[in-house]
Amino acid sequence: MAAKKKKVTPLMQQYNTIKVKHPDALLLFRVGDFYETFGEDAVKAAKILGIILTHRNNGGDKTELAGFPHHSLNTYLPKLVKAGQRVAICDQLEDPKQTKSIVKRGVTELVTPGVALNDDILNAKSNNFLCAVHFGRNKLGVSFLDISTGEYLTSQGSVEQVDKLLQNFSPNEVLISKNHKKDFVECFGNQFHSFFLEDWIFQEDYAQESLNHHFGTTTLKGFGIDHLNHGIIASGAVLHYLSETQHSRLQHINKIQRIAEEEYVWMDRFTIRNLELYNSSHQNAVTLLDIIDKTISPMGGRLLKRWLALPLKNVEKIQQRHQVVAYLKDEDEQLNKIQGHIKQMGDLERLISKLATGKINPKEVVQLKNSLEAVVPIKQLAQNSTNDSLKNIGERLNDCEALRSKIKEMLNEEAPVNIAKGNTIAKGYSEELDELRGLAFSGKDYLDKMLERETRETGITSLKIASNNVFGYYIEVRNTHKDKVPQSWTRKQTLVNAERYITEELKEYESKILGAEERIYQLEQQLFEQLLVWMQEYIAPVQLNAQLIAQLDCLCGFAQLAQENNYVAPVVNDSTDIDIKEGRHPVIEKQLPIGDAYVTNDVLLNREEQQIIMITGPNMSGKSALLRQTALIVLLAQMGSFVPASEANLGVVDKIFTRVGASDNISMGESTFMVEMNETASILNNLSERSLVLLDEIGRGTSTYDGISIAWAISEYLHEHPAKAKTLFATHYHELNDMTNTFGRIKNYNVSVKELENNVIFLRKLVPGGSEHSFGIHVAKMAGMPQQVIQKANKILKKLEKSHSSEEVSDKLQASQNEMQLSFFNLDDPLLEEIKEEILHLDIDTLTPVEALMKLNEIKRLLGKKKKASS
């Protein structure tokens, strides 16, 4: 007997058809007043949302089911998206009352981690970037788009450059071609939420066509991106994805910008991580952003992150920011006034984006008007200031007067979120609406009069008129007066001690009121829609206002930061020197116990006399803090902020490199030492004359002598390199102090300590000269190591100091230094010739670390043979 075919209900048939089109999204299927999920989706939804999972037998087939009321969508949707789900919202496309068969349904929006307009999903002070990465032949293209603000950025470059941008912009979702799944993980790890698209989407002609069509242009020259073919392909993929997620109203995305990396300070991803600029691997750690963010508006908060990610290199632009901060810091009253007005504002950028995408509600339109009203006094304050940059901001701000008065005239100040609640359109705007409202809401007087008349005519004293959902308006008569009810009334309901009746007059009145309510709703909706269409023209001016207010907010924040924490104006110029007097670490100084003063330090670096500072000193003495504070002071200055110091003269820095020993990358399957060497190699290969290099305990991941040799070789390389990059090198290898004897621009400093019989006090002050010995055992003692361990360690140390005096090591290093300088002249030896040839023909850029080690092994073998032959 043939197997019985399972019967599928029409509803499930419809569901399956829609689900097939969105296989990788969680489908929220609207059924009546609920959004339902089925099967696998239901299992996921129940787990993420903590709602009940039920089953239903669907034609003998058991299907999982989980749902929630449709009005709770804004509560549940963010939870699903934050859990990394792509959510397809499937709505009823027609009124169920109007159809005899199954209601038409379709996906009206696809919400993904990178494509969201819902306030509960978005974080006010962070962008929500959707990103695409395109793997070209020799370069990568990258594009970032935030649909909630309309920002659209693109760039192209090496893996390192794209990696840095991904760290800077931390996108919420990354699109990649399916063919490059593996490449992406190899280059960037798997911390990004990624989605894979078909390969045909990443084609240049398709991307060009999509972008030109969207912007209504024939060429991308006007945006200055026409030469970035890889960037264009990535940008095209982002745009394609928006249309795929049912987002077609994108008028607010009206330009695309190139990320002009040559204008900003280069920091690789290790530096961004080591300096803990906006996030930290340590729990509860305070980041630089936490300390410096004094912005009030969401737009300002987002821009500050951008400024921190991309500090300026242009001296003039940096000085302009400093001048505004100086002006605002001194003009206390103006600063407070401007900040007071910014406080009155909502998120202008996201509100106007909601208008463009058709997602704005009446309450938000009123909020937009009120935010724009706060722009007016700011415009005046800025225009009247004596600072040119502020004046310029004031002149460019648009008071949007027509827009504000139109909204004021049309909308009720207390307009609701949901237009169906009524009372959206202001009184006096539409005559017809006012009449209808009069009819619908002056009903109470009419009913009171009717009640009075009926009571008089029937002689029933306790008459009551009321209404319910079942049969509308009725007259209630208590049983004691039942016999006085007129013939013309129709009985509708009998209660325990009363009867309910309806009359012709009540019926007529009711249909009039119901008609009026229905018509009021239609009219309000129609008028509101007209307003939204009319408002579209103001998208660009409001976006410009948002950007200008964001800049102003950041600069006011810097002024407040300088006032509260005693920061000074740095002098930024075109020299290559760094001269900081009494510098402090902006984050650590805020974490100190009350009453403790931060120990300040001077740092002087230049390319003539003091290019490399070797800082020795025990662990915990503050070497790392000193390195980081130097980088943070430079960064703050080039962002446009004042700095924590008593004086700072800074030549513009174009690259900041930091390498902190032993930050494990074992999860990626690499040894600490290998990671350290990879990162250091990347620094040495990218040096420039304006670079600032901070090396902290390099070579610690291997044995002591190996470590000393590597640290020595790296320092020598930095000293001899034509870039003469300014370097701070913190180490506890005291042997490196001997380098000053040979290398003129290396200077020794140490972080001083005070010894009191068997105890150590860290003074955290940088003083000239090398430090004599390590205090590792003292630190162990302070950490509470058991007494016998400390005693044993001291004994071993004494023995070791006798057998390996550091003079011996230094003598060996000095001897090897002389030998190295000589050895290059013994090249008449044929074997050395051969090795020389080998080395010269190596292409270092394409050599992997493993191949390099194998090469080295080969050379070692050749030398081994020579040794045997000669012995």
What would your notes on this structure say?
This protein is an alpha/beta fold and 871 residues long. It has five domains: 10-111, DNA repair protein MutS, domain I (MutS, DNA mismatch repair protein, domain I); 130-259, 2-Layer Sandwich (Nucleotidyltransferase, domain 5), CATH 3.30.420.110; 288-387 and 537-565, Orthogonal Bundle (MutS, DNA mismatch repair protein, Chain A, domain 3), CATH 1.10.1420.10; 571-787, P-loop containing nucleotide triphosphate hydrolases (Rossmann fold, 3-Layer(aba) Sandwich); 826-870. It is built from 30 helices and 27 strands. The protein has a seven-stranded mixed beta sheet, sandwiched between helices. A six-stranded mixed beta sheet has the order 3-4-2-1-5-6, with helices on both faces. A hairpin with a 3-residue loop joins strand 14 (464-468) and strand 15. Helix 11 (315-330) crosses helix 20 and helix 16 (401-410) runs antiparallel to helix 19. The longest helix has 32 residues, at 504-535. The chain starts with 9 loop residues before the first helix and ends with a helix.
